[in-house]
Amino acid sequence: MIEMSDSVFPVPSDLASRAHVDNAKYLEMYKRSVDDPDGFWGEHGKRVDWMKPYTKVKNTSYDHHNVSIKWFEDGTLNVSANCVDRHLETRGDQPAIIWEGDDPSEHKVITYKQLHHEVNVFANVLHAQGVKKGDRVTIYLPMIPEAAYAMLACARIGAIHSIVFGGFSPDSLAQRIDSCQSNCVITADEGLRGGRKVPLKANVDKATEKAPVNSVIVVKRTGGEITMKDGRDVWYHEEADRVSDHCQPVEMNAEDPLFILYTSGSTGQPKGVVHTTGGYLVYASMTHQYVFDYQEGDIYWCTADVGWVTGHSYIVYGPLANGATTLMFEGVPTYPGPDRFWEVCDKHNVTIFYTAPTAIRALMGAGDDHVKKHSLKSLRLLGSVGEPINPEAWTWYYNVVGQGRCPIVDTWWQTETGGILITPLPGATDLKPGSATRPFFGVQPAIVDAEGKVLDGATEGNLVMLDSWPGQMRTVYGDHERFVQTYFSTYKGMYFTGDGCRRDTDGYYWITGRVDDVINVSGHRMGTAEVESALVSHPKVSEAAVVGYPHDIKGQGIYAYVTLMDGEEPTDALKKELVTHVRAEIGPIASPDLIQFAPGLPKTRSGKIMRRILRKIAEDSFDSLGDTSTLADPAVVDDLIDNRQNRA
Ligand code: PRX
């Protein structure tokens, strides 16, 4: 549970005058953005280059009978032209991407001119493989520059990319290839993370046994041994030699899909979140500029992976649309040592640094000395994303990393929102550790009770959005009804975020975490249902129930209650086997932290598992279990308590 700290860190006065907006400007712009969205976004939409200018701005409906979201709907543009070509004249020789390898001896600087060349070549390689406008391309790459080239190349020819995080298993990859009927996969021989090799191509080979594709483009990263399938697999570098470096960007409608990104929900398989071209780019670039107060000459580093939405919006599309220099890091925070982040900040003179609370907590645990041996003088702004940041970690980040000099933007958003919705603006917003503070322009948050009644003033409840913003997801790929059901039917006429939230007397928002069956492990979203279905697919498991519990580093850990088949022995060896099984089914990010063998699970007489009770026991706070009288067999609870695995 997030604490509400009382400390306030006022905006430094010199920053208020230097930043894009101070508080008065924020209030004025915010008011206009909600009073006159057409006027506001009509003006700010011009920040990107349109091939055919839009004449319509907002056309959105949250009516659950007819959910429809369109922005700039008659305009046309190309995202890759906006992220690359339009910068050539003014900043062709400026670094677009600084790539830092897993091994500290490796780095590369890619200028906008070079990026232009690479994206054109990659686009032509895709063409040569038969990829056309509207086709879905699955990208399963490590954090190498080719990931950005591939994304922008898809955008250039109008193909829709679906990036699958390199930590997902072959099965998860297969499911995502199949779900969007993608015929082309872009991968690498192997990835490299923390000195360890990740067998990406071998995973693709396994995945495509279940979900066959026509073409696999393989980027050479490590030179490790792999097998190439004749007639299907090609080496990227060989194909690149055969094509020209000119590819005309395709004219796309503002509402043509740009990408699909799978994310976990409370039920069923991951959903293919669809983002479109115009509104997404306007929103990603505008938030990148204002939230990070991006200024000419900044070196901006977001430590996310492009496999997550943060990497899409704030490593690639937002920064590059703004002509920024974006740093892309292949490795992990703790390799070769727990000072790697700080070493990289000094090496490349990073000015803006954006990471996740889980990394901050882990590095805080490693001790201040690792930070203090680096200068970090270049830093001027810090950011946080992915989960609630506890005030202790916030304060450490502020004092030790930021040396008391750098504001922290705690940015709240989701895969579905495309960009940041609730956040401080560095020159405008006084900070409170642990609060994401106030809405960005055009964003209208509200807090509702269980019945959907909007609550006023200082209060607590569920977080909804009352109206649309340009970066909002448009649909679930291939299943608009699921989109409507998931987000617009809990509270009619509102977008439901799935998060709980408090608002204080200053109108600041404090996200308290998910209120559905989604858990947030190290800033990664995981559906409990997915982990349960992986567990029950093991032959020795008859039933499983998964909940989150507070974890010092990860924010939440995965706690699995497992009922075994009759006659199976509940041993430690079996626990290990189950962990290995889940890793193989979903990926290492889904590994249960604690497994409790449970002869029975608490169920109502109608057979519904009472998760509330399981959550309490996992949190080690079982003296407040509430009413258990509706349980079919109240005695199972005693056994669960006696054998609980988390004795916090
Ligand atoms: O619960 C919220 C949490 O992460 C969820 C969204 O996860 P995902 O779609 O994977 O996107 C993560 C990166 C944008 C939200 O529903 N979350 C994200 N940022 C914050 C946060 N919780 C608290 N504070 C944040 N700053």
From TrEMBL:
Protein's name in the database: Acetyl-coenzyme A synthetase
InterPro entries: Ac_CoA_lig (IPR011904), ACAS_N (IPR032387), AMP-bd_C (IPR025110), AMP-bd_C_sf (IPR045851), AMP-binding_CS (IPR020845), AMP-dep_synth/lig_dom (IPR000873), ANL_N_sf (IPR042099)
Reported modifications of this chain: Acetylated. Deacetylation by the SIR2-homolog deacetylase activates the enzyme.
Cofactor(s) recorded in Swiss-Prot or TrEMBL: Mg(2+)
Protein purpose: Catalyzes the conversion of acetate into acetyl-CoA (AcCoA), an essential intermediate at the junction of anabolic and catabolic pathways. AcsA undergoes a two-step reaction. In the first half reaction, AcsA combines acetate with ATP to form acetyl-adenylate (AcAMP) intermediate. In the second half reaction, it can then transfer the acetyl group from AcAMP to the sulfhydryl group of CoA, forming the product AcCoA.
Residues reported in the UniProt entry to bind ATP: 386-388, 410-415, 499, 514, 525
EC number(s) given by UniProt: 6.2.1.1
Lineage: Bacteria, Pseudomonadati, Pseudomonadota, Alphaproteobacteria, Hyphomicrobiales
GO term, biological process aspect, one: acetyl-CoA biosynthetic process from acetate
Organism: Roseibium aquae
Cellular component, GO, one term: cytosol
Signal sequence annotation: none
GO MF terms, alphabetically ordered: acetate-CoA ligase activity; AMP binding; ATP binding; metal ion binding
UniProt key word Acetylation: yes
PTM annotation (N6-acetyllysine): residues: 608
Residue ranges annotated for the Acetyl-coenzyme A synthetase N-terminal domain, each copy included: 26-83
Domain AMP-dependent synthetase/ligase: 85-465
Record-linked SUPFAM superfamilies: Acetyl-CoA synthetase-like
Keyword flag Nuclease: no
Domain AMP-binding enzyme C-terminal intervals: 530-608
